[in-house]
Amino acid sequence: MTRPVGVLVPAAGLGTRLGPGAPKALRELAGEPLLVHAVRGLRAAPSVGPVVVAAPAADVTQVQALLAPYDVVVVAGGAERTDSVRLALDALDPAVALVLVHDAARCLTPPALVEAVVACLREGADAVVPVLRVADTVKTVEGTTVVATADRSALRAVQTPQGFRRDVLARAHAAAAGSTTDDAGLVEALGVPVTTVPGDEEAFKVTRPIDLLLAEAVLAGRR
Ligand code: CTP
Ligand code: MG
């Protein structure tokens, strides 16, 4: 019997870059909150078992009601994404040994990407990240002056879901000094290898207003 995989969903961010309005996870896309789209996508992935959502502290009751059809645990998130992930991990059934961390803001992530990350974990990887090649050249700038240009062919943009052996993720978070937007980075800091799988363009993160337009278009294309 293959044991189910747990998913932690950080959803407690304010969505500052999206502009004024409700917290990002509660902003609407085609008439439903981003978080509902995100959780529905996770539930469409057969390997996904227990799901813990870290919601904005002021909206826990509302989020519990919104997600009632999806059998999830909702906890209050923290000030930084790292805090939200840690609080969700604390609420996950202790029997769950494999964990994904998935941004609510990547609300249209195809279930096939979730399954690809899980498959890599089940093959024995300690940590797994979906990656895409970067389209733009990336430079290091100090003030207004370019000081270096990275070799684009070696660069990858990292998405979620990121997958972990639970003990590795717990150890990485226990050792974390500050906050980070990338759980795999904490695992790298332990010296534990992180494996990549091909990402998916539809797993993009809704960050700026233009991303909502893109999300509407992707959804329209699926209908
Ligand atoms: N997140 C969280 N708790 C925080 C901050 C972020 O759970 N204290 C979550 C967000 O809800 C989001 C994911 O982490 O699903 C990725 O973060 P990001 O895209 O940066 O979202 P926000 O922090 O909400 O946006 P912004 O940085 O523009 O304020
Ligand atoms: Mg943020």
List the topology elements:
Layout: E1 5-10, E2 28-29, E3 32-33, H1 34-43, E4 48-55, H2 60-66, E5 73-76, H3 81-90, E6 98-101, H4 111-122, E7 127-133, E8 139-142, E9 145-149, E10 156-158, E11 162-165, H5 166-175, H6 183-189, E12 195-198, H7 209-222
Parallel strand pairs: 1-4, 1-6, 4-5, 7-12
Antiparallel strand pairs: 2-3, 6-11, 7-10, 7-11, 8-9
Describe what this molecule looks like in 3D.
This protein is α/β, with parallel strands linked by helices and 223 residues long. The protein has a single domain, classed as Alpha-Beta Complex (Spore Coat Polysaccharide Biosynthesis Protein SpsA, Chain A). The protein is 31% helix and 24% strand. It is built from 7 helices and 12 strands. The strands form 3 sheets. Strands 1, 4, 5, 6, 7, 10, 11 and 12 form an 8-stranded mixed sheet that branches. A two-stranded antiparallel sheet has the order 2-3. It has a two-stranded antiparallel sheet with strand order 8-9. A hairpin with a 2-residue loop joins strand 8 and strand 9. Helix 5 crosses helix 6. The radius of gyration is 17 Å and the shape is globular. The mean pLDDT is 96.
Please provide a brief summary of the model.
This protein is α/β, with parallel strands linked by helices. It contains seven helices and twelve strands. The radius of gyration is 17 Å and the shape is globular.
Classify the beta-strand content into a percent band: 15-25%
Number of helices: 7
In angstroms, what separates the terminal alpha carbons?
Answer: 35 Å
- Helical percentage: 25-40%
**CATH level-two architecture:** Alpha-Beta Complex
Arithmetic mean of pLDDT: 96
Number of individual domains: 1
Which structural class matches the secondary elements? Answer: alpha/beta
Largest sheet: 8 strands, mixed
The CATH homologous superfamily name equals Spore Coat Polysaccharide Biosynthesis Protein SpsA, Chain A
What is the succession of H and E elements? EEEHEHEHEHEEEEEHHEH
Query: What do we call the CATH topology?
Result: Spore Coat Polysaccharide Biosynthesis Protein SpsA, Chain A
* Outline: globular
Rounded to the nearest angstrom, the radius of gyration is 17 Å
CATH top level is Alpha Beta
Which regions have little confidence, pLDDT < 50, spanning 5+ residues? Answer: none
Bound ligands = cytidine-5'-triphosphate, magnesium ion
**Beta-strand segment tally:** 12
